[in-house]
Amino acid sequence: MEWPGLFNYWIVIFLMMAGLYVVMARANLIKKMVGLSIFQASVFIFYLTMGKVAGGTAPIVIPGNPVYSNPLPHVLILTAIVVGVATLAMGLAIIVRINEAYGTIEEDEIDQQEHDS
Amino acid sequence: MVLTVLLIIRLHNLFAVVMLSGIYSLLAATFFVVVDGVDVAFTEAAVGAGISTVLMLGALSVTTQREKAAAKSTLVPLAVVVVTGAALVYGTLDMPNYGDPEAPIHKHVAPRYIEDSLKETSVPNMVTAVLASYRGYDTLGEVTVIFTAGIGVILLLVRVGGRRRREDEDAA
Q1: Residue A57: strand, helix, or coil
Q2: Which end of chain A is more exposed for a tag (fewer CB within 10 A), N or C?
Q3: The complex's ipTM?
């Protein structure tokens, strides 16, 4: 198997799992959002890795007969990035509301307050 | 990128974490340039590294700067992550190699876009042609999502501001 072979996919998996770990292991809500963004960006990297053709160029028509990389993943990810920001804004707004209501953005403290009341 | 992510996991200063996530987005954008996704790269640099960071800083400014040390056990998440990761690595063993022009993804609709999009839409940039022309409805749906999210954010935050104003009035 010649370099880089499947190496890109393994990096993607590492980043993805790191994001998942942050979401699960950290109680801070903003840190969880950062974890979600890491996860999301790793999926973007995965898609674009699949779209690459060896020796290819960016999918913009140029004279001659070049090899183009696959434009379809680019389109899908372009949409996904923008939607990702929309959901991030939504999540942060909810976090701000939670902070107003509970005075904390730590998940376990919110849990505690819920149990006490 | 791996280093940035490890730092994000370790650090407890949320300001540093948000800055690192911006750096992470920027590194992702440079990677996108390497794999020929130039449109994606500048969107990621502007939106992922720019707007996301600003949004997170805004959220930090009204909440808190510091994360409290994790009290709960990290063993269960770690186990879940390792098992899932191992399963995914096993899954990649069947994947085509990086840059393989014979990969199934390059065989179906992509050749048509590459060969006919200039004739059919007279837009030289294929990504734009597909985004705005062939998949125009996708983009319409995307705009709907952003619109909904915008309304949601405004509703959530206006209530915060409104209540604060009422409390101020009560106090006065």
Answers
A1: strand
A2: C
A3: 0.88
